[in-house]
Amino acid sequence: MTGSPAVQAASTDTGIHAEVQQFYAHQMQLLDRRACEEWAATFTPDGVFAANGLPAPVRGREAIAAAARAAGERLAADGLVHRHWLGMLTVTAAPGGELFARSYALVIQIRLGGTSEIHRSTVCEDRLVRAEDGSLLVLDRRVTRDDLA
Amino acid sequence: MTGSPAVQAASTDTGIHAEVQQFYAHQMQLLDRRACEEWAATFTPDGVFAANGLPAPVRGREAIAAAARAAGERLAADGLVHRHWLGMLTVTAAPGGELFARSYALVIQIRLGGTSEIHRSTVCEDRLVRAEDGSLLVLDRRVTRDDLA
Amino acid sequence: MTGSPAVQAASTDTGIHAEVQQFYAHQMQLLDRRACEEWAATFTPDGVFAANGLPAPVRGREAIAAAARAAGERLAADGLVHRHWLGMLTVTAAPGGELFARSYALVIQIRLGGTSEIHRSTVCEDRLVRAEDGSLLVLDRRVTRDDLA
Fold this sequence. Notes:
The structure is a homotrimer.
Chain A: H1 5-32, H2 36-40, E1 43-51, E2 58-59, H3 61-77, E3 80-93, E4 99-111, E5 116-130, E6 136-145
Parallel strand pairs in A: 1-6
Antiparallel strand pairs in A: 1-2, 3-4, 4-5, 5-6
């Protein structure tokens, strides 16, 4: 690793930034291909998924998997495909070793045999923690739909 | 750091690439939540924001903050929210220690209580420099709307 | 490079992840500005571009450049601009030193003097290899349109 101390320090930060990006790409691919158990396993066992578009927060892996499964079945029945894009990610260190990640999330909706459009524009705020093996997990996710804000 | 010299060299480059990504995410979040002074402070004191959709370049932090404030007020009055997405970023070293960054930028426009759409597709070309503390600043930004090109 | 062993290991992986991101940004900018020879040179000499929206796979740099040239001429004749966005990238090591990259790709279509929309939503699956100088090349690309899936 070469470069001035300032560049080295930035690189350390960007390492975690890139790691969170990679985690999100993996997580969203799981959701979109309806790998619902694997998707739920990217949350902590008692993880929370809350959204201003949902009646109540979803708590725990079992409930998170069930919600994804139900949503996937509705889409399939309607001849729709969803692709979740997360971007414009900022990551900051939070107390207790947590990471606070704020990003924009778009849901692209594709109609089979038809057109593609932006279904939702949202802001996603995550509290991330590390599993024992060092991998990232979502402890708490808050998704805010921009059209309801 | 393991890997062949080629991989190491690439990683050094990608460190700066990731740092610019992170800078843009932070910068766009500031703009979109109408933190206009903080947004302007991501430019150099005499920084320039030029666009083929604007009558004239905007020069200096005060003018850049004022332009963002006026744009934000128009959006709020119209019941609209904007989310700026930058992506497909390339970064190259330029003379004098500057960085030249070229990216695509989309403006997603959300109507409160309504739908979301692509408002603009643009190309963003930045000359970036470092502040005394090593952080990045925009010296000169040129935004080209694809529909006017 | 500071940090725990877990963070260091993740950073090595994220280095390659970031390198592929950077490669894609460069590659898509070449395509979108119709640098067709340079675009073709990001594939191996006998590289393959296959898509479920194409009648047959395109093989080899000459054919890949010709296809890009023809597509660009059709767009220009129709007063359209395309911007290719790749995102939500996952990269995994594959046998023989190859990388397997899976990403989402959007084609944004801009009408000169008109509006911008999502033209296609696709999944892009690449087998990537290294040239002798260590740079990345596409050996095999499979693009799956979500509306045809």
